Structures
1.
Amino acid sequence: MKEVRSMVLTGYGINCEVEMAHACRLAGSDVVEIVHINELIYGDKKLDDYHFLNLPGGFLDGDDLGAAKAGANRIRYAKILKDTERLYDQFLRFIRAGKLILGVCNGFQLMVKLGLIPNLEGGDGKQEVTLTFNDSGRFEDRWVYLKVNPEAPSIFTKGLRGVYLPVRHGEGKFIPKDEETLKEIKRRNLIVLQYSDESYERPVMDYPLNPNGSIEAVAGLCDATGRLMGLMPHPEAYLHRTNHPRWTREELPEEGMGVAFFRNAVQYIRQNLL
Amino acid sequence: MAHRIEIGLKEGIRDALGEKVKRRIERDLGLSIGSVKTISVYTLDLELSKEELETIASDPFLDPIIQEYRIDEPLARDFDWLIEVSFKPGVTDNVGKTAREAIEWRLERRLREEEKVYTSTQYLLKGNLRREDVERICTGLLGNPLIQRFEVWSREQWKGKIDPKIPKVTMEGGGSVVEIDLEIDDQALLQLSQRRLLALDLREMKAIQRYLRDPRVLRERNRVGLGKKITDVELEAIAQTWSEHCKHKIFNARIEYWDEEGRLLVIDSLFKTYVRRATEEVRHALGEKDWCVSVFDDNAGVIQFNDQYNLVFKVETHNTPCALDPYGGALTGIVGVNRDPFGTGKGAKLIFNVDTFCFASPFYDKPIPPPLFHPKRVYEGVREGVEHGGNKSGIPTVNGGVVFDDRYLGKPLVYCGTGGIMPREILGEPSHLKKASPGDFIVMTGGRIGKDGIHGATFSSEELREDSPATAVQIGDPITQKKMTDFLLLARDRGLYQSITDNGAGGLSSSVGEMARETGCELHLDRAPLKYAGLDPWEILLSEAQERMTLAVSPEKLDSFLELAKKMDVEATVLGKFTDTKKFHVLYQGKTVAYLDMEFFHYGLPKMELRARWKQPVHPEPDFEEPEDLTQTLFSMLSRLNIASKESMIRQYDHEVQGGVVVKPMTGRFNDGPSDAAVIRPILSSFEGVVVSNGICPRYSDIDTYHMVACAIDEAIRNNVAVGGDPDRIAGLDNFCWPDPVQSEKTPDGEFKLAQLVRANQALYEYCKGFGIPLISGKDSMKNDAIVGGVKISIPPTVLISALGKIEDVRKAVTMDAKRPGDLVYILGETFEELGGSEYFASKGFIGNRVPRVDLKRAKQLYRCVFQAIQEGLIHSCHDCSDGGLGVALAETAFAGGLGMEIDLRKVPQRGITRDDFLLFSESQSRFIVTISPDRKKTFEDLFRNTVFGEIGKVIRQEIFQVTGLKGEKIIEANIYDLKEAWQRPLRF
């Protein structure tokens, strides 16, 4: 593959696929395709033909069994019809090939429930952390300040110090399995983003700056390779200055802060995977 | 054997949903309680081995990090009361459906059709509660007895075991057709109509009787095996098609209207005379530049957006279902109206939702008679229904409002609207045109049919009674609908169908009946997929089960269509064919069960004849002293429910999914000021924008519905223009909600209410024509009364005007928050002593008589100037003056910007006002507060030289809002954050 090829997954309640695809295009991806989960299951499309998998926000299967839970179950157990392998095997092969996955909101919940991040044990697919109901017990749409951990291996946040993005979720509270897990996550610097104060310096636990009560103010995580990342806030919702809630009163650069995540991904692919 | 799997949180994990329930028990029911915990229960009616049970309980059902499970033994412990809330048989159980699918994936085998999963929720209460308190918690908060059942155990009664109960629908029989003899006397005809909930009057029943007497009709019926009796399938289908809901009988009636001077005006159809004529004349005036594409013909109106795209917009009400079940009613309201633009032309992609609600006060403290819910419950239920419907469908909720008036106690109004976009051409054909041809297949896609919503159309044409049927309540399923719309948009772009329409009121009867109106159809009801057995053919035909579209698919495309449906996991079933017989021909297991001439079916309805008599109501002139402390008055005005911030509701809606919302519902320095309108960019690679706004002012109806409508139109346009919408490119939608305006024993003031309706329509015509606003779609809901305990509660006549505008470049849009210290504050437009029906008078217990009037010519001129000023970048902030007038608009502008203001009322252009309170709170129309940079003063004033405006003060850094009164004294001085707190506090739920 001589060109950067991005796939944006859709279907079964995913609903941010259009803006996520737009973000990939703005970031310079040569090919951007929105692909229905069943196109993968029917074997019409294969993950192997892409470098960058985008798991957008939405409500997979209505989040009926808990956020992204039924969606994770589908991906884990569905068999490809034209083949004998499972869809999950394709995911694992994609990851082993050193390719990139970015999960936003419901996509992050999906990655966590598939055990793709933080993946401390190395590929056994076991869930180690969760994202569950906000302390407020309600869905909320509000913009949050995010402190970026410069030590995190995430390739998506390279060069970023702080970002301002909207959260739009009811189940975004991060909880690790136990103290040990949290310690290990911190030791390996896998916390990429934390809800913070307006200066992007101090992680905060107070509502509404921390919109859900996430432990350690976690808003985004990656795996140890940094090639897999998930976050509750929506980078694809801030692609142009007019997405910013105060663009009519503040001096802002033309490009929105969310584009950087996708540009970093495309650049990484150009440098390492082509 | 049935099993129960229970899932609960591990020890030490916070139960956020339980805490939320606890807060609402305390706040809404006034009970004190120790704690609430929740447990999810799955009842499995399927054959599973022990290992399999273990597998599904511990995998797809469980979040192993925070949850634990039990199989066939209860998790519940340590409670004073245990409540389990489950669905009654036949009620949509979305979670149960997803759980069933998850089991299939996990166990890698298909379950049998009858193997089902049912869900319920347990609430573990701790605290000193009596049984009647717990029962109140059940029906007053946790569920709705119409669709749910409650089991309650006290700690003492608890035996430590719950046997699985299967809420399976078990109906005997089904499939039967009854023939009814209509050769009966008038009394018997009427009784028949009432008994079967047909909502047909005697003239209509007799029209059916006459039709069956026609020898030609009888001859043709004999040929297909029917006789002179009518079948229940036919009678129900006619009643549905002829319902007020579907045929708008009142809007199409011949009306004799007497004005106050006793002059008679005969109106042949309000719709044709006023609504449609306004649009026709606006379009005629636009001539070649007419940008309307399809109006009034389809499920939604269509206008041109640019050379490549059309916009589609529709607003509906879902009042009666919301009165019966606020959550389910609102959920089906929003996913239902989604299907209107989706079923317009060849189908539009949905790009925004809007919602406006009219409720009684959430703090209402008088007894609420059954079956009504407390307004707070209605508020929360409707909010949650719209939240789930909109958010889960991935459509941003961008605009709306809430109006409070205790007359909405009997029927809350729930307006839900959806906009869409479609390419002007699809595969070389205009996308707004569609046609089912003889030979095309009738295909139904999406959900399955159950008894849900049967009689919805006829039922909403009647007042709400204590014995209103529970089948009218439904729960929507946004994910099934999303899957279907994902599929159909793809099918559309591949040209796989000829025509599409939604199954809403009246179900298949309406959708197929409409599509086959000019051709004919042969519809086989036994082929329709059912949720459960036991339905009679008429029920299958009439069911309003949600998430279904009906399509016409040509024979050569059928295989591709069905294959794509299968691939995208959407159920699609061929139910018959379109024919050239001009007959509505319905069969069940090969036997004809309905055979009606399309002509009669659609046009056989006799025209209603009604009388209207107008008399100007006169209210006592308000008589109260000007308050000494106007600062305090301003605080209390900001806390009025109709003015207070709706942020807690707005935040729970996703208002920016799809990535194009440029002016969001909340704006300003702290993202918490009230935007006047929404601006969205539907095509992310372009800066062209859609501007969405609304106007609604039912309080003015107490004085004159003519001015109520004029003001609603002005408000919708004003809001649109305030953010940068082009006043010459706005399309309107009119949604009427009225109390029953037909004179009868139970409505002795029907002639007056009908006169109110006539006057409202006259204003609609005058002002839409005058402003050049074509009405592209609309709807009416005419029986918004409730008879409860023998007392009738009627809503005030209410019209929602929704405006769909355009802005060439969204980067020019303006928001309402003050931007910079030193900016000059202007008021545009003139203020009169127009406090009749105002919030201010209402706060003093008066209505008054001097209702605001709209000066069409001046308003239009002003709007064009504002548009130009925004285009030229002269305006920093622009906010419309509406409820609470100038005083409220100024305070909102200041605190939204986090800046203070110095205002001098002596500079406000006005006529005849001598009191500061009147000047501050008059609701004169067509006014804005704008702030501009001082160095643009001359350019700005030159542009507005032919309009009335005044420079009334300036924006200051100091966070103080101060106003100098007419006598030159400081009359208001307040910290802006205190003002904001007063505005935010009341509805911070």
2.
Amino acid sequence: MAADLKFAKTHEWVRQDAGGVGTVGISAYAVEALTDLVFMQLPPVGRRVKAGESIGEIESVKAVSDLYAPVSGEVVAVNTTLPGQLDTLGKDPYNAGWIVKIKPDDPAEMAGLLDRAAYEALVKSQSH
Amino acid sequence: MATPVIHVWCDEPADGPTNMAADEVLAGESLRRGALLVRLYGWETTTISLGAFQKHEDALAAVEIQGLPLVRRPSGGGAIVHGSDLTYAAAVPKTHPWGASPQALYDALHEALVRTLAGIGVDAALWRPSQPVSAHADDESFFCFDRRASGDVVFRPAASAEPDDSAGQAGRGHKIMGSAQRRLEGAVLQHGSLLLRQNTLVHGRAAHPGLADLVAAPADLPGNGQIVDRWLDLVAREARADVVRETGGFLAPRAEEVAGYAARFREPRWTARR
């Protein structure tokens, strides 16, 4: 897990590039917990989202889960290959498994997310 | 430390949108109470519930269920013919040990049912795949009871081996209970259905044998109430919790809130969202 990632409590990760755009995915922990992914629905490019708002859904054999926007802003890119290759989420969740890119309204909002250590502590607490 | 409590409600039959709405309210209530809640309910008429991601056109094309009311669940999985099943909704906060992963709640409730059935002389077991389920061609079967997911409860004919798919179709057994979840922001809502008998209002691939059709002596089966009571007691034992059977039903005192949620499930655009 790269040190440059920030995490939402709902298990999405964000990597902010030099231009401020945040690449969003879901953590390896979340992918493993969901197991056997079968379908994914993604938002359209251009959609405005608020932090904590559902931006898509992912279905595994047993469960449907929402994907939440970790920051408010505009969806500027969507990984359209992902719904057809869901195993990418398990193989490379922090790179090729990216889901959307969001241009944040307020880049400072990133500061409210969890750093790697805090996220790992959260996962540990939820695993017991 | 106080013993955890599982609250249980039994509701009168209602229509599909009302039942789906009540279950969403149940999930919110679970989060507020910080406890596992269970709602058992019936259906006013035979109703088809679609999984959250199933295609509406597939339902319209299924001649075996034409003319029956449709409702789309918020949970995943395949279509279920309700009316001759025992339907439950269970809701638990994600902070609960059974809320952390999909399999935990699934297995807990299904294992308790397997033990319940064993106690009345019915040999059932949890189905386990011999390879990842996503590799199976029948993942996308339209009806839930034609699909197999790890932890499904299958009836085990006498002298058969552990139910898995390694022996082909013959080794799969008849699925009699399946469940599916909606993982909300703070809580997990699990829908499940125990097939009690084959529904006579559908035919062909929509008709699946239920418990009473599979056992050698259906007249010896206890009443549904006894099965439910035993099941809940075993669930509570596993959770080291007490069961509180609430009176008056879940729906009636929350009719206004449920009606608000039900409006979404009545909208054609919700039912036809995929």
